[in-house]
Amino acid sequence: MSPKKTTTLLEDFRKGLWKDNPVFVLLLGLCPTLAVTTSAYNGLGMGIATAFVLLCSNILISLIAPIVPHGVRIPVYVVVIATFVSAVDMALKAWMVELSQGLGLFVPLIVVNCIILGRAEAFASRNNVLRSILDAIGMSLGFTLALFVLGAIREIIGAGTITLFQLGETLIQFRVMGEDYPGILTMILPPGAFITLGLLLALKNTIQRRLDARATRSAATRTATKHPATS
Amino acid sequence: MKDTIKMIVVLTLIATLAGLGLALMNEATQADIEDNARRAILDAIHQVLPDADPPNPCQRYDAIFDNEPDRDAVCIEGATVFRARKGKDVVAMAMEVVGDNAYSGTISALVGLRMDDGMLMGIKVLAHAETPGLGSLISDCQLMSGQMVGHTPSSIKWAVKKDGGDIDQLTGATISTRAMINAVAKAQAMWRDHRQTIINGDAMPADGGCHVP
Description:
The complex is a heterodimer. Chain A has ten helices and two strands. Chain A is mainly alpha-helical. Chain A has one domain. The longest helix of chain A is centred in the C-terminal third of the chain and has 37 residues, at 190-226. Chain A is flat and about 60 Å long. The model of chain A has no long low-confidence stretch (mean pLDDT 84). Chain B is α+β, with helices and mostly antiparallel strands. Chain B has three helices and five strands; from the N terminus they run αβββββαα. Chain B has a five-stranded antiparallel β-sheet with strand order 1-2-3-4-5, with helices on both faces. The model of chain B has no long low-confidence stretch (mean pLDDT 89).
């Protein structure tokens, strides 16, 4: 292992969840993020489809990276990613029709989701397979979680329900608001996506600032108690 | 020069492998995908041609036909008309129509009509881009289909009340309602003008597309 790598394996996995969350911090892949999150389940489905492609592409790219010349690396990554996306699209159409109808246009759109190319270029091509797998799982979990939260908030306020699963006739759906809740249509429409994302970003930043402040304070106390003479 | 050749070789190799992988995947999924597409068509035809008189569009019934309408279609003026048979008689027809001038683009729907009097047996919206919550209610079985299903071309006036007809426009979505009526009208016109061809015409080959001659 080269000396410049100071991150631990756990850190590779964890950073996608919070510190480098693809949606809330890196603001990558906003097209699927904003467009599909009209219900909690749509967010979940998109997240899982993206996770699969990200995992496959990260594994393969970290394996082939050593033999790919620098000049053609981006075209190679694009070919690899496009292949996996097409394969997922065919698999969904053949074996999970309802899910494929629900996600519709957005599965082919995974190919332009910058998270995947971004992770290929920034992480998988420079790290070994194990780290790339952890990175992919962490990032996809962060992405899926973000989409799920966004979808859940929009669905609860927009329609008063929360849908956890939907395949053909099978539907796992809970009514959160009362039976007479009319729903706020704006939340299901595009403006609702932007408003919710903005509020969530603000919330995330506030929490982060509190955590940072606490970390600085406790670090300061620790230094003070350890070296009382130096100050 | 050496670098250039290496680039060409690597990219070509990877693209070839990717193509090979996709070809295998296509081979593995194609039959299932076609099967799903066919099942979707048959299920939609089943939904618009229920065995009930008058049918309640919010309920599911057995299908009125005992043949395979998607394999027994006639091509009339570029439109595919599915024939539903009970025994040998053509008892009903189903066709995909496009409602023009919807609020956003067009509405495509499958319309089922009874053969002897043109009664609307069912209508199923296949694709639309209307406003969620307003125009999207065209898919509502009670609000939209409920007003139209069970009526023949002459038993009500096929227009929204605003235009002097008998159909209540959906709140805030008069334009979408008009587009739905327009879709039904196209199927009714087909039934009125081509009834004999629909009953007696030759079935088109299973894989043959239907084009305007």
